[in-house]
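Example record

One chain of 430 residues, shown exactly as stored in the release files.
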Amino acid sequence: MHDIRLIRDNPNGFDAALARRGLAPLSSKIIEIDTLRRAKITAAETALADRNAASKQIGAAKSQGLKDEFERLRTLVADKKNEIGILEVQAKEEDERLQALLGTIPNLPHEEVPEGTNEDDNVEIHIWGTPVELGFTPKEHYELPATKGGMDFETAAKLSGSRFVIMSGAVARLHRALAQFMIDTHTTENGLTEVNTPVLVRDEAMHGTGQLPKFAEDSYQTTNGWWLIPTSEVTLTNLVSDQILDEESLPRRYTAHSLCFRSEAGSAGRDTSGMLRQHQFEKVEMVSVTKPEDSLAELDRMTDCAQKILEKLELPYRTVVLCTGDMGFGARKTHDIEVWLPGQSAYREISSCSVCGDFQARRMNTRFKRAGEKKPEFVHTLNGSGLAVGRCLIAVLENGQQEDGSVSLPKILHPWLGGKTHITAEGKMA
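Predicted structure tokens for this chain:
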């Protein structure tokens, strides 16, 4: 959510920031609604003052026997009461109009974010590892002999429709091991607190992190109104909603392994084969809550946590800063980490780490109080994948594939696999 006072004070700056996202100016419309809202509030306050003054005069008029004045004042009080009620309703309506409009406007990009219109304008800032020359034509994950029996898209489609998969045997075990390895690394090495949260949330939680109203069509809603989370960013961030935190408790760093659900209505025709884009998937999420002055450094820290997971798995990757035209709705600055997939001969996104500034905090009403200060300030929030488990599975399978159809597994995972080192061409863990 945006600070209406900043828009009033610097409407041209607000519009200029929106223009960097390719959006038309909105400050004049916002200020128009805000002016009407404030006028109704002022008129209601004036009417209340008039009513209170008249109420005080009624007793004196009655005691002095001023019948006409008494009746005039009594009528005035009744009229002012009705007027106040109407003005308060009108002020509430204008406020709802204002909040509805502000709720649809994306966050303003940080001045460090490069200009651009799409992913072609993103800027590479880091690269690690070198894609291995396999010496044979690599296959995609769902084409590998080792995974043929462990990924069942046909039965999943019978059960649930397209973009679902049933994993079994060695593939299911590897998928589980990856999630456990990630969560263990984040808790034991990266200082994150593990949290197990619900996957069903109320409107308020989805609105707090910016999924509503903008992305309602990309989300699943139950018949009783709950929403299935698109990522545990929703629940982890809302752990601090409607709170005033102590400065000493910041930063707060959370992680969770959860099921995630996305209808992805706008993704028709993309990545229709395999596990790359699913309606149900698992992700290890990271969320940080910080003081404003610490949030950019926290973005670098969070990005490094995600990168280190890939390095431990010996998976080549690159990190890019998203340009203004490719950033997500709630982000001020975003780092995307893209892992190398030999089957596609391309880098594909496996993590997105974003700093949101006070954008989510305003929607959630989450503040903190500095030591010795009376007035609380809004916190800054960040979120990032650490990592998408299914996509990490894809990367491990494709980068570890052997010419004989087997898959060699990263050494770091062996303890989570009971000492097993590879998946045979027949799909067995060995």
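Notes: The first helix runs from residue 4 to 9.
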